Amino acid sequence: MSLTDMFLLVRPRRQLQNKLTMAPTGTTLFLIILVHIWFCTLLFISNTCKATRPTPKFPAILVFGDSTVDTGNNNYLKTLFKGNHYPYGQDFPGHVTTGRFSNGKLVPDFLASMLNIKETVPPFLDPSLSDTNLVTGVSFASGGSGFDDITGSVGGIIPFSKQVEYFKRYIVRVQGIVGEKEAKKLISSAVVVISAGTNDFGFNFYDIPTRRLEFNISGYQDFLQNKLHIFIEELYELGCRRMAIAGLPPIGCLPIQITVKVESPHDRRCIEEENLDALVYNKKLASLLPKIQSLLPRSKIVYADVYMPLIDMINNPLNFGFLETKRGCCGTGLVETGPFCNSLTAVCDNVLEYLFWDSIHPSQAAYLYISKYLEKKSIPELLDYDNQSQPLVTLFDQTG
């Protein structure tokens, strides 16, 4: 082959290479511009979402109490009183049995969401807690506990004294994440929710009259509120400043109380004496909390009324979409709770029509109404506070 022939063979390849290295064609240029616009649009949307994300009203939520606010701590205890089995949690996101004593979310979960903190409040004992979930708040509550030391003492649950100890461990862990200074700021700015008392009266006074041997009803109310006073002071000494203290529900309307006290199974009237006791207790509590607040500088301690929203739902069920208010959705609704509400137990066809999930605990729908009531009545008092610290929204993405 001559040199001329070889040149002719190589020339087309060079021409092709030159075309590939030339300026892009109109079609190629259009695609490049389109991709650039698409990328810029995504970047704009991302920045806009970050800029418009609601600022949390509190940097964290800290929860103490009984099964009404236990989001799963009992799962990690040697106790029979657990809610980590079906049908509990059947309406929780993902239909997960989390240990909450309801078919879905509890009041702390709804409040955390309403306050733009996060969607749910995890239990402190969950070993898989992320730093973000820990710093933005947890529940220390334990189903079966109460202000009285003997409440649930044989049930293997977490008494209030132990909940304080867990809170001390929590503070140390938070200090390790954000530093001592920021941890102190976070604790003082967090909203603290305390809900207990029903078990004390049910276990120790009404159904098993242990405390009736030494107290009348008024004396026992004062005894419990003195215990609460001490507990509030302990939390204050550990840095808490903003606290919402729940009163008692209408205990006499709990399905299990009606079952125990009423002779006829067809008579499902509330036990008015127990409801009156709860009202007196709540009146005392509402009077006591401002006095405690006056003794603790720069604190804000408010009464959270759960009696009124519940009794309103009981007396006017149709206004809330309920058809059944005197028995739970699980089983017969008369006695089933905890281990007796299980995967072998039948449940109602439409839980949205039931105020109570089991014989003690309200349904998710009822908890939502209670949360909305508290958001309107109690939370504004905590927000009206002259010692607000800057929320730690710059430290963590508060999406749960």
Automatic annotation (TrEMBL):
Membrane-spanning segments: 20-45
UniProt EC number: 3.1.1.3
Assigned keywords, A-Z: Hydrolase, Membrane, Transmembrane, Transmembrane helix
Signal peptide start and end residues: none
GO molecular function, one term: triacylglycerol lipase activity
Pfam family name, one: Lipase_GDSL
Enzyme class, UniProt record, top EC level: hydrolase
SUPFAM superfamilies: SGNH hydrolase
Family: Belongs to the 'GDSL' lipolytic enzyme family.
Protein name: Putative triacylglycerol lipase
Record organism: Rosa chinensis (China rose)
